[in-house]
Amino acid sequence: MSEPQPAPDPRGTAPAPRRMRPAQLLFEPPEATADPEHFFGLESVEDPGALLSRATELALAFRAAADRATEFQAMAAAQLTDPRRFDRLPLAAVAERADWTEDYAQKMVEFGQSLLRSGSTVPPDTD
Q1: CA–CA distances in Å: residue 86 to residues 78, 79, 80, 111
Q2: Measured between alpha carbons, how far is 12 from 5 in angstroms, rounded to an integer?
Q3: Is residue 93's pLDDT more than 50?
Q4: What is the pLDDT of residues 65-81, one digit of tens each?
Q5: Where are the beta strands (DSSP E) in 1-127?
């Protein structure tokens, strides 16, 4: 059986090839990360004051991102172990998936339950 072909264009021209949009860059491009000295352009900052300022901004942004990701981990762990779910996972399975100990997984589930109860999906401002 042959593959389906597009209908011929009544104007007699060939259909234009479909163009895919490029994926959004979420990380540094591979060319930049191939150089171990390259890190968000910090290696090119010569002024120590500017370097400290920019590096501090990055450190705070990464810390905030890590805190936020941890909250989402906790909420997901709480949801995955919820006894009301027909497809709930045992605590050991959640611990294994997240590379946690079972004790830590239990604490994360409790933290996630408290976040879900409070309806918090936005962390409190720590300023």
Answers
A1: 14, 11, 10, 22
A2: 15
A3: yes
A4: 999 999 999 999 999 99
A5: none
